[in-house]
Write a structure and sequence with these properties.
The chain is an all-alpha fold and 140 residues long. Helix content is 78%, strand content 0%. The chain has one domain. The protein is elongated and about 45 Å long. The model has no long low-confidence stretch (mean pLDDT 91).
């Protein structure tokens, strides 16, 4: 891993942390509480959240640089973002709705889907732009 890869990974991690806190705690905390989906908002396990952020950022950056999309800059970053958002929506948003009683499924899908679009969209834009700026591809 080069210094440039580390910079891109760090940027992905910062974006992931920022959008997660901004979306879940600042913008929509009360909505999530009203849905009855998040029952640990008063006493979250911060270590699990940190591990999730590390895993999401690392997975995005590794997959990006292992794919031919890294040669496409922002366009490639957005293609990977769309793929990861679809995968995550299938695995967590739909999976949660199948297993957990949620008060308003429409709101759950809008909140969770909106978060995935914002999160991965920002990652795709930033990673694609910085990769193009640094002139890297296929190196990780």
């Amino acid at each position: 891993m080069t210094k440039q890869h580390l910079v891109i990974w760090a940027l992905a991690l910062v974006i992931t942390i920022f959008i997660s806190i901004f979306w879940h705690v600042i913008l929509f905390e009360q909505a999530y509480l009203n849905l009855g989906v998040y029952t640990r908002m008063d006493s979250p396990i911060y270590g699990f959240g940190l591990v999730a952020w590390l895993m999401e950022s690392t997975a995005f950056v590794v997959i990006y640089f292992r794919s031919s999309w890294s040669s496409e800059g922002i366009s490639g970053g957005l293609k990977l973002a769309m793929l990861m958002a679809i995968f995550t929506a299938a695995a967590s948003v739909m999976g949660s709705a199948a297993k957990v009683q949620i008060n308003d499924l429409t709101q759950w899908f809008l909140l969770s889907g909106g978060f995935l679009a914002a999160h991965f969209g920002m990652l795709g834009l930033a990673v694609g732009w910085l990769n193009r700026k640094l002139g890297m591809e296929y190196e990780l």
